[in-house]
Specification:
five-stranded antiparallel beta sheet; elongated; mainly beta
Length: about 80
C-alpha cells in the first residue's frame, strides 16, 4: 500500500514588520505585510501550522524549507488538490 502524503495547503497570513532608522511615524504604513505560502502540512497544533516547501517521503519522511506560522497570524487557508 502506498504511503499517504501530507496535505498541500495555500495559507494567507499577516507577517510582522520592523522599521529601522530615524523616521516620522506619522508617515509610515503600519498595516503590516500580508504573505502567502503554499506547502505540505507537516505539523499542526492549536497554536501553529508548519508547512514544508519540499518533502521526501522515504523511510525517514524528511522535509526541507519548513515555515512555522502562528495560528493567530493566519487570515485564510485552503487545501490544494
Amino acid at each position: 500500500m502506498a504511503k499517504k502524503h501530507p496535505q498541500i495547503e495555500h495559507v494567507v497570513w499577516n507577517d510582522s514588520t520592523e522599521f529601522t532608522g530615524w523616521q516620522d511615524p506619522r508617515r509610515q504604513d503600519y498595516s503590516g505585510l500580508k504573505c502567502q505560502t503554499v506547502g505540505w502540512v507537516v505539523d499542526e497544533s492549536d497554536k501553529h501550522l508548519a508547512l514544508a516547501g519540499s518533502i521526501a517521503p522515504n523511510a525517514t519522511s524528511t522535509a526541507t524549507g519548513v515555515m512555522v506560522i502562528p495560528k493567530s497570524a493566519i487570515v485564510k487557508r485552503r487545501k490544494v488538490r
